[in-house]
Backbone:
């Protein structure tokens, strides 16, 4: 992605695009953060299949994909938000709110399709509230979404209390739980792949997407280049809201439970995966392939360790260490390089 | 955004000191301008209204005790969090640190029979300080945003806690009575734990207001680049803020075990957001440079008191979080409004001085 950015600004695009930073394009792609993380994903997958019994089975793949599906979904719009230099911590609460909405509507015998649409509207409103407070009122997104974590979760828990709704149409549950034959690929991967393609295309091949990167690098420069900063950010928050609600629908049907506390803490996993995938928390840097590889890498690591008999708690430690290392290492390397006298 | 952050005066409330009026009106003016005044009023309103509905909320031995006792731990966390946030960082790992030190407290009593209580307190503080030191080292030396680092250590510390604890649980029967008494007894009407928290708040407040190194935390948060250029020891100060935040979380962990007599692998989960929320409600700006530990402490007090008041006021406790959310959002909107007003006033004053 950096190649395209530089192409746009370079004086003579064609010859320079291949040799920016003094390295040919293929070498830059090879040493890019995305390539590293994709390589890590491939290596870990191969090692796990070879070493961990049953890891290579379709059942494992099925469960792995079902488990990571909500994170994978929300990571897409979260990338948009983080690339603009903002953050949305309220996604898991929106997921819970959507789950409760679905449960209550199903209990009231509202047709499923209609209920799901209402859930998406709830997500849209949740995203709009965040977006409004960040762009129109001009508040820092981290403070706003710490507030809406509590607000949305509070409404969800307040509506349902400690009750749990567990009866959903079995055909819909099947859609969220079953796989294509014995392929290990759950049905839910179809809409997710569509989402990935749409989000990837928007982020990397439209002027709107380029604008998100631009305003993450410098809000003022972006504004002077004619990018509507506030509208772009607002849209990014709307997208996280809607997709989080969609993940809430999936979550509810997959576990056949609507609860106020569904998905608690998921925001941290999503952000961890996005950052692991090479998106800079400062904004302006990152790419969707890296994010997807990041989500899957955490999924593969966790499921392999689980199958290897490592307790889920040790896995939490590993997840944390991987996250810390993934952000600290590049920084340390850069600093060490900066200190080393440059060869002429 | 930058325009708002521009006024470097950390205590916005104090402002340019008015030279007119006698001491009383000056004091009053200062009081109405202070950032903490609004939230103190909010606390008083909550306590008064709840007491009117149910007098035992305040006017019973247990009522008075619980009013002060329950917020004690969050007070400590909020103070540490405020010191970190003032430097433009954030510490998300405090909940996990509380969990680890709470369990450590129980383990010490079980495995070292007859261990002096003072030693246990020190062990909790030191252990918390070491965990904070790890955060601080990663943040200060790797120059990675604290949000990311402490998000990672939140996992790591919690994971270590769960690995160590497993399905174990510390029970009151495993703890010495005189330790548990600390958790419930009072001294001249002040529960011990509240007294400890109060002392910490006062020391931290004094340090942040009067000591050079404390003032520098504000300078760093207002403009890190300028602080660096000016020659402040940015790395060292940020590092120390994290160590203090960790140490206070460690102390809070010891207090948790003293108060509840139990701790397990999930102790302290989610406390980090409450601590950040308390600081934000108390007027500590999330992007650093302004606010006070007093404000954060009162914010913590308000959060806990509201959650205890809601059921008495006839609101199901399920709605508690929603109220907290609205409070946080209200507080940051108010903060934004005040900041805009201050910067407009400063601009106006500059215009006038040119004429």
Residues:
């Amino acid at each position: 992605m950096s190649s395209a950015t530089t192409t746009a600004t370079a004086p003579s695009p064609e010859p320079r695009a291949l040799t920016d930073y003094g390295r040919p394009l293929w070498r830059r792609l090879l040493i890019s953060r995305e390539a590293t993380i994709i390589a890590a994903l491939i290596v870990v997958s191969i090692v796990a299949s070879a070493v961990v019994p049953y890891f290579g089975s379709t059942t494992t793949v099925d469960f792995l994909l079902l488990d990571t599906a909500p994170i994978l979904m929300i990571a897409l719009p979260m990338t948009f938000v983080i690339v603009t230099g903002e953050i949305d911590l309220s996604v898991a609460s929106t997921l819970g709110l959507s789950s409760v909405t679905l449960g209550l509507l199903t209990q009231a015998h509202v047709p499923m399709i209609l209920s799901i649409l209402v859930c998406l509207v709830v997500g849209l409103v949740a995203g709009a509230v965040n977006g409004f407070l960040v762009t129109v009122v001009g508040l820092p997104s981290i403070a706003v979404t710490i507030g809406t974590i509590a607000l949305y979760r509070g409404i969800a828990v307040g509506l349902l209390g400690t009750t749990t709704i567990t009866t959903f149409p079995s055909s819909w549950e099947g859609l969220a739980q079953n796989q294509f034959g014995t392929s290990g690929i759950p049905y839910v991967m179809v809409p997710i792949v569509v989402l990935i393609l749409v989000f990837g295309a928007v982020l990397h091949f439209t002027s709107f997407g380029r604008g998100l990167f631009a305003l993450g690098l410098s809000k003022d420069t972006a504004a002077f280049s004619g990018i509507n900063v506030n509208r772009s950010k607002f849209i990014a928050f709307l997208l996280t809201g809607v997709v989080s609600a969609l993940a809430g629908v999936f979550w509810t049907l997959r576990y056949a439970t609507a609860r106020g506390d569904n998905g608690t803490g998921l925001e941290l996993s999503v952000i961890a995966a996005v950052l692991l995938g090479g998106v800079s928390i400062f904004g302006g840097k990152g790419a969707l392939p890296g994010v997807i590889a990041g989500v899957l890498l955490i999924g593969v690591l966790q499921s392999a360790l689980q199958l290897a008999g490592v307790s889920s708690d040790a896995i939490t430690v590993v997840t944390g260490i991987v996250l810390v290392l993934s952000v600290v290492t590049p920084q340390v390397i850069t600093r060490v390089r900066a200190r080393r006298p440059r060869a002429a | 955004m930058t325009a708002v952050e521009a006024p470097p005066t950390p205590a916005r409330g104090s402002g340019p000191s008015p030279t007119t009026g006698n001491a009383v009106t000056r004091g009053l003016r200062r009081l109405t301008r202070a950032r903490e005044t609004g939230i103190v009023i909010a606390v008083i309103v909550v306590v008064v209204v709840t007491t009117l509905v149910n007098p035992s909320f305040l006017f019973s031995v247990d009522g008075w005790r619980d009013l002060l006792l329950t917020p004690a731990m969050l007070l400590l966390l909020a103070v540490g969090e405020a010191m970190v946030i003032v430097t433009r960082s954030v510490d998300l790992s405090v909940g996990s640190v509380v969990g680890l030190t709470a369990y450590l407290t129980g383990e010490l009593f079980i495995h070292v029979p007859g261990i002096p209580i003072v030693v246990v307190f020190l062990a909790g503080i030191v252990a918390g300080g070491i965990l904070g030191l790890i955060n601080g080292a990663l943040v200060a030396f790797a120059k990675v945003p604290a949000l990311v680092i402490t998000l990672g250590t939140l996992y790591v510390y919690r994971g270590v806690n769960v690995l160590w604890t497993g399905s174990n649980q510390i029970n009151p029967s495993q703890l010495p009575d005189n330790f548990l008494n600390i958790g419930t007894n009072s001294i001249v009407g002040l529960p011990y734990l509240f007294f400890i928290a109060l002392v910490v708040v006062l020391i931290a407040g004094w340090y942040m207001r009067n000591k050079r190194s404390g003032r520098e935390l504000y300078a760093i948060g207002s403009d890190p680049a300028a602080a660096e250029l000016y020659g402040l020891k940015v790395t060292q100060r940020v590092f120390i803020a994290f160590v203090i935040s960790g140490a206070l979380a460690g102390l809070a962990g010891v207090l948790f075990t003293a108060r509840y007599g139990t701790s397990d692998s999930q102790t302290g989960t989610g406390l980090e957001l409450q601590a950040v929320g308390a600081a934000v409600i108390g007027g500590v700006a999330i992007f650093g440079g302004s606010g006070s530990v007093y404000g954060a402490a009162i914010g913590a007090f308000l959060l806990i008191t509201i959650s205890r008041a809601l059921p008495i006021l006839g609101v199901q406790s399920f709605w508690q979080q929603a109220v907290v959310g609205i409070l946080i959002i209200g507080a940051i909107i108010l903060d934004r409004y005040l900041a805009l007003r201050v910067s407009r006033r400063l601009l106006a004053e500059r215009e006038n001085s040119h004429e």
Q: What stands out?
A: The longest strand of chain B covers residues 186-187. The interface with chain A takes residues 1, 90, 138, 142-145, 147-149, 151-160, 162-163, 265, 273, 276-277, 280, 286-287, 316, 318-329, 332-333, 336 of chain B (CB under 8 Å). The radius of gyration of chain B is 21 Å. The longest helix of chain B spans residues 320-354.
